[in-house]
Amino acid sequence: MGNKIRVARKDQGLTLMDLSRRSKVSLASLSKAERGLIALSYEKFLAVSQALGMDLSDLFRKTAAQEKGGVVVDRANDAVIYRANRYLYGMLATKWPQKKMTPMYGRVEPGAPIDASDFSKHAGEEFIFVLEGSLTMEFENGTSQTLDRHDSIYFNSALGHHYLCASPTAVEILVVCLNDGESMPTPMPMQD
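== Transcriptional regulator ==
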C-alpha cells in the first residue's frame, strides 16, 4: 500500500509535507507508511485518499476499473487484504470506480486496543454485520454495544469507535462505510 500512496503522491507533484498538510496525517506516519514500516488505520487511509482526490478503493485496486453500470463479483480469494494491529480488512469490490460505499470483510482478533483512548473516527456512516463470533463496539461517548452472530449496528462514523472481539477466537464481520466526501459532521449521541 505504501508504494501506491507514494506513486499517487508523486504523480500529483506533492511532497510528503504537502500530503501531510492536506490529509492531517503526520509526516512521520506518512513516511513510515510509504516505506511499509507501519500500517495506517482506516480513517488515516481515508484521509490520505481524499487528500489525493482518490476513492479509497483506488489504493487497493488490483486491476482496471469496471465501467459504470457493470457488475463486480469478488470470489472468496479476491479480497485485497490489509492488516493493522488486531484487525484484518479484506477490501471488497475494489474494481468498481468511484463507489459511494466501501464494503469490507473484517476479522478482529481478541485483545485490547493498543491505545484505548485512540478511537477511530471518520466522515460518513458505518454499518457492521457480525458473521461469526461476538463483537463489542465501544464509543468515545462512553457507550458500548455487544453484537452476536447475525446482529448488526449502524452509526455515524464521526463518533469515535473501537471494534473489540468479545469471543475467545476472532470475530468475523461485514463492514460497509459510506462517505459522501464531505468533512466530518458532529456525531449524534448513541441511543440504546
